[in-house]
Amino acid sequence: MLEAVLFDLDGTLADTAPDLGGSANILLLQEGRPQQSLATLRPYTSQGVRGLLRAGFGIDPQHPDYDRLARRFLEIYAGRLCDETQLFDGVAALLDELENMGLGWGIVTNKRMRFTDPLVEMLALSPRTRCVVSGDTTAEAKPSPLPILHACQLLACRPENTLYVGDDLRDIQAGRAAGCLTVAVSYGYLGDSGPLEQWGADLIIDHPSELAAYLASHARRK
Ligand SMILES: O=C(O)COP(=O)(O)O
Ligand SMILES: [Mg+2]
Predict the structure, then answer these.
(1) DSSP summary character for residue 42
(2) Residue 54, domain extent
(3) Would you say the CB of residue 137 lies under 6 angstroms from ligand 1?
(4) Is the CB of 10 under 6 A from ligand 1?
(5) Where do the DSSP E strands lie in 97-193?
(6) Atom nearest to 189 CA in ligand 1
(7) Is 15's C-beta closer than 6 angstroms to any atom of ligand 1?
(8) What pTM was estimated for this model as a whole?
(9) Which residues of 107-125 are buried (b: 16+ CB within 10 A; e: fewer)?
(10) Which ligand 1 atom sits nearest the alpha carbon of residue 47?
(11) What is the pLDDT of residues 73-92, one digit of tens each?
(12) Do 114 and 201 have their domain in common?
């Protein structure tokens, strides 16, 4: 019997790529570098600042300019967390459906708290989500199972009766390591982790409505 559904944030609940990519382009402009299209930056947004600096500047954390550029990028992003960010099509209806079914849902993201908390507020999800676990809430971030296990404690649900939904290989790895059922979404950022059919997810969906349909046939009222 399903007890709860936990979601990744970037690339799963919310399309944060326009603000992350937009922030990267502001930084590129300030540094006198050429702009990148959102289509180019989009797959890298799954890896947060590290991915965007790799895409925009071709640098990794070992590079001497990395810390300075990462700090600047995060300052810029903090000022435009939700200018263009919105829930993916079908997410609002899915969350309504979960609540109608009496299933609690929560957020487990690798985004840091200082960005997650205001963004969740601006997306009007704060009163609805049963937990917000960020990349720095627990000692380790995904692909460690710790954040998901922490969320299960907060929701008082058993991992084996919980779905974890995400758009990156590390989401599926974390969910499986926590003992959850896992769902991979193909509409997110996917990253560079190879075909999602090979991630080992229990279910793959192309649109949030497919999860609603799956839950309607599997979930029981609490
Ligand atoms: O900001 C990140 O590092 C990625 O965030 P996510 O875990 O919600 O996809
Ligand atoms: Mg994601």
Answers:
(1) G
(2) 17-78
(3) no
(4) yes
(5) 104-108, 132-133, 162-166, 181-185
(6) 9
(7) no
(8) 0.95
(9) bbbbbbeebbeebbeebeb
(10) 3
(11) 999 999 999 999 999 999 99
(12) yes
